[in-house]
Amino acid sequence: MSRPTIAGVARAAGVSVASVSRVLNGLPATEEMVERVQRAVDELGYVPDARARSLKVGRTFQLTLAVADVGNPVYVTMMRAVEEVVSAAGYRLVVTTTGPDVVDEVALVRGMARGYADGLLISPLRVDEDLVKSIRECEVPVVVAGNVPAKAGVDTVRANSPKGMLLAVDHLVAKDRRRIAFLNGPADTVPGAARAKGFAEALKAHNLEPAAVAEATDFTFTAGRAAAPDLPAGGFDAVICANDLLAVGVMHELAAAGLEVPADVAVVGMDDSELAEQSFPPLTSVNLGSAERGRRAAELLLARIEDNERAPRRIVVQPSLSIRRSTP
Amino acid sequence: MSRPTIAGVARAAGVSVASVSRVLNGLPATEEMVERVQRAVDELGYVPDARARSLKVGRTFQLTLAVADVGNPVYVTMMRAVEEVVSAAGYRLVVTTTGPDVVDEVALVRGMARGYADGLLISPLRVDEDLVKSIRECEVPVVVAGNVPAKAGVDTVRANSPKGMLLAVDHLVAKDRRRIAFLNGPADTVPGAARAKGFAEALKAHNLEPAAVAEATDFTFTAGRAAAPDLPAGGFDAVICANDLLAVGVMHELAAAGLEVPADVAVVGMDDSELAEQSFPPLTSVNLGSAERGRRAAELLLARIEDNERAPRRIVVQPSLSIRRSTP
DNA sequence: TTGTACGCGTTATCAA
DNA sequence: TTGATAACGCGTACAA
């Protein structure tokens, strides 16, 4: 005894399949028709098959969110925001992890052609020609949370890293910290490149030289710890890290070296994720608007699904600084 | 110009649709046939439609993982393990958040009947009759990561909280901490109930009385901070927390009260998530085998999809203790 | 080995 | 308003 189909319901109710479909979709029907169909549906426990429906209407009512690392708390913030918008619009959200390699991202975008989902929201770590091309050629609408060349002609929502960097440096300088170091993630990533540039600019705006710059192999806690020794001990009184995970990693190493935060070294993270609040001491962090970026990106995606001819939009979300106890 | 279908490919290659399908699915065909089909496929950029395929074969090759809170780092551990097993078997993983309410869980399980996915892996926070019933009646295979009555007749993978508690208490007692407090999450949840019971038993095994017991409103960092004051200041020299997030919340409050960890108070978490390593001081935590539970649960789900008649299995994963600096 | 034709469960078009 | 029927794109008996 397998699942009842619409035909079964029609038979049980003594009406046509078309009528059942109409009642189920709220199209005009007589009082009595609705009544009969409803009863048959309840009796048989009929549930419409999403697969068949998808085939017919050409939509899955499913959207994909692709992030590089589910372990990065910034993505949970973004994911929550996206989920909220998307489910309010009647879509389910599929969360996928791509890993750090651009080839995986490309494979994912190409795979969208199979019609698993009605749209893709991707936050790529690395971007190359192949990825831009695959996005442009993608069968379903794509929105990028991150930076991608304007000529790609794709909807984009991104953070303003340079401005965020400036907020961080302003704050540190106001607290009399002038020997500022920078721990970046991989510079060959989109956020890595943006933050390196932003850091350089922000220091220049204050007529300062970088006290030190190091680069972690990943945007992870472990990579942060591993890279911390690359910053010359005692050579800086403040360090800005490219994200919160790196910052927490650095704080562990500073503690191990007997340095106090913020007395000896002030630490600033970026993303203002839940981890910033949870770390000890709580981490001053640049809020790059991950929740808002998620929300706006989701809205953009829904709008494009509605109308694929609209001109691509490029939204920039402004940062703010969440000051906590890791800075004086 | 819409997507090419299998019919288009057949026309372009001058063969039948059946032959195209066969070649694509690796069924026997002549060298030349394969060649011709392949060329046509490449030329047209044909990609099989997952929707149509799903309808025909009655499978989506999609599995759903439902967790209560994506912000809880224990789930990223589990998710990673599940993803690994599942993708190796050719399935995609859909991650869904249910929230803390059992009604949402029930709605989710019921919704599986629509055929969105071929199986469900759920880690329910709260379990009631409705949930058990919906799981038993579910159209697709369900595996529960957590505790559910044996009479539910469902595959289950769960942790051994009492044993884990005992490991924690053993460790603390060995370090001469005998005034042990316990911060639980909501006791009306499955893990909350298990841990409360485990704590009581473990203390009894050592002939100890609880120094204090409190209950947070959620298994979150914020709830942990809020509940910490419910433990009598100075009344305990060790505290076990029902998960890592609560433990980190407590450590923040202890610090605010001027107490040192572990000198004044030893702190033990549960889950041994990434957060335990990231917290400061690093958190001693009971490893309840979340990665292994995820892996085993995923394997169970795949096995049941393969053969729905097999007898339900109930797997218990044994805990271990990861000792870090939050205990002496 | 290859081709024809049907069915998967649904929605949408057209007559009645 | 309702009912019969043609798609949607694919896999697969069955026949050739």
Structural description of this entry:
Chain A starts with 5 loop residues before the first helix and ends in a 6-residue tail after the last strand. The longest helix of chain A has 17 residues. Chain A has a six-stranded parallel beta sheet, with helices on both faces. Chain A has a six-stranded mixed beta sheet with strand order 7-6-8-9-10-12, sandwiched between helices. Chain A is elongated, with a radius of gyration of 25 Å. In chain A, helix 5 links the parallel strand 1 and strand 2. Chain A is of the alpha/beta class. Chain A has 13 helices and twelve strands. At the A-B interface, helix 4, helix 5, strand 2, helix 11 and helix 12 of A face helix 4, helix 5, strand 2, helix 11 and helix 12 of B. The first copy, chain A, binds a DNA duplex (16 and 16 nucleotides) through helix 2 and helix 4.
Short account of what is shown:
The structure is a homodimer of 328-residue chains. Chain A contains 13 helices and 12 strands. The first copy, chain A, has helices spanning 6-13, 17-24, 31-44, 50-57, 73-88, 102-111, 129-136, 161-174, 190-205, 221-227, 244-256, 274-278, 290-306; strands at residues 62-67, 92-97, 119-122, 142-145, 155-159, 180-184, 212-215, 238-241, 266-270, 284-287, 314-317, 320-322.
Features:
homodimer; 12 strands; alpha/beta; elongated; DNA-binding
Mean pLDDT over all positions of chain A: 96
Helices and strands of chain A: which structural class? alpha/beta
Order of helices and strands of chain A: HHHHEHEHEHEEHEHEHEHEHEHEE
How far apart lie the N and C ends of chain A?
69 Å
Helix content of chain A: 40-55%
